[in-house]
From TrEMBL:
PROSITE patterns: DNAJ_1, DNAJ_2, ZF_CR
Domain J: 5-69
Stored InterPro entries: DnaJ, DnaJ_C, DnaJ_domain, DnaJ_domain_CS, HSP40/DnaJ_pept-bd, HSP_DnaJ_Cys-rich_dom, HSP_DnaJ_Cys-rich_dom_sf, J_dom_sf
Subcellular localization: Cytoplasm
Coiled-coil intervals, chain numbering: none
Positions of CR-type zinc fingers: 131-213
Underlying gene: dnaJ
Organism: Ureaplasma diversum NCTC 246
Protein name (database record): Chaperone protein DnaJ
Length: 369
């Protein structure tokens, strides 16, 4: 039997928005859910509705379907989903929440809390360019040394949780728009483990963990970028003998004098206006030391000079010695402490006709006539 068009199944147009598609799906799913609709064809209708929504709610799948139709979507009909309905996946859980969480959903709730540690690490701009060593302090969870991570005074004192009878989870009946449904949650008494103790460890209060303060020196490579994440292996939490990793999220402080774009660095160099007129050499302070550049005569404000290879070294091409460049933009310093003789000399210079000044003035006069 040929499949119906997915848009037809949900009763929406091909130009329907995501919100319209989702609204249509919710309405039809409630109407044909087998727990609520006992009709002979309810289950097949529900599967058809679910299949259509799974494709049309995904931008990539929808675009593919619009172009090729049903022929390329057989793969989306073969996966096992909730309650035996094909291709159900996590999509329906996302819409209707925990009412449909079965054993598979519980597995995520009861999983171990052995997590990696994430820390922000602030460094200066120059430290990011040159690399540095940073000493960090943080807290991590480790197995309780008093009970070796068991949670009980006596390792042989472990008993079955009486609250969940060792299942690690509890089931309760809740009322939903679809009728009464089962909802599973981790047992709050045993935290989903199914075990309890006659006498709790006095050190960790049966939490099995304790907090340990750690001081660590880490090496930050030159060229690290803002937002980059560095992984320090096996320096995270230590639980049940399992070591996790420490993730350092780099935060680079802004510099008043330098700015980074990729591997290139930009700055400003202030020079004497007299030097800009007559030309000469200038020492430019870069992040890799002092470099000398030649200033041609009549160098204007805003002129940018490039110093090749004076930028940041690429972390990905260290063997090739690939580096970015350093760019500096010229600005003029204000003349200070001029003698009367120097002022008189400059005054005489201003009397000389500057054709560019005259041309600009005449252009403006024509504009206002």
């Amino acid at each position: 039997m040929a499949k119906r068009d997915y848009y037809e199944v949900l009763g929406v147009s091909k130009n329907a928005t995501d919100a319209e598609i989702k609204s249509a799906f919710r309405k039809l799913a409630k109407e044909y859910h087998p727990d609520k609709n006992k009709g002979a064809d309810a289950e097949e209708k529900f599967k058809e509705i679910n299949e259509a929504y799974e494709v049309l709610s995904d931008a990539n799948k929808r675009a593919h379907y619009d172009q090729f139709g049903h022929s390329d979507f057989n793969q989306f009909q073969n996966g096992a989903g909730f309650g035996g309905f094909d291709g159900f996946g996590s999509m329906f859980d996302d819409i209707f929440g925990s009412f449909f969480n079965g054993g598979a959903g519980f597995a995520n709730q009861a999983q171990s809390n052995v997590d990696d540690i994430n820390l922000g690490l602030r460094i200066s701009f120059i430290e990011s360019v040159k690399g540095c060593s940073k000493k960090i302090k943080f807290n991590r969870h480790v197995d309780c040394t008093a009970c070796n991570g068991v949670g009980s005074k006596d390792p042989n004192d472990v008993i079955i949780c009486t609250s969940c009878q060792g299942r690690g989870r509890k089931v309760k009946i809740v009322r939903t728009p679809f009728g009464e449904m089962k909802q599973e949650k981790a047992c709050s008494s045993c935290k989903g483990e199914g075990k309890s103790f006659k006498s709790k460890c006095e050190t960790c209060k049966a939490k099995k963990l304790m907090v340990e303060s750690v001081e660590l020196t880490v090496e930050i490579a030159s060229g690290v970028d803002d937002g980059e994440v560095l992984v320090v292996k096996n320096k995270g939490n230590v639980i049940k003998g399992q070591r996790t990793d420490l993730y350092l999220h780099i935060q680079i402080e802004r510099s008043r004098y330098f700015e980074r774009h990729g591997l290139d660095i930009y700055s400003e160099t202030i020079i004497d206006p007299i030097l800009a007129i007559i030309g000469g050499t200038v020492e430019v302070v870069t992040t890799n030391g002092i470099k000398t550049i030649i200033i041609p005569p009549n160098t204007p404000v805003g002129k940018r000079f490039k110093i090749s290879g004076a930028g940041i070294e690429s972390k990905n091409n260290r063997l090739l010695k690939k580096r970015g460049d350093f760019y500096t933009t010229i600005n003029y310093a204000k003349p200070v402490n001029l003698t009367e003789q120097e002022k008189a000399f400059l005054k005489e210079l201003t009397k000389k006709t500057n054709h560019e000044v005259e041309e600009h003035r005449n252009t403006l006069l024509k504009e206002i006539k």
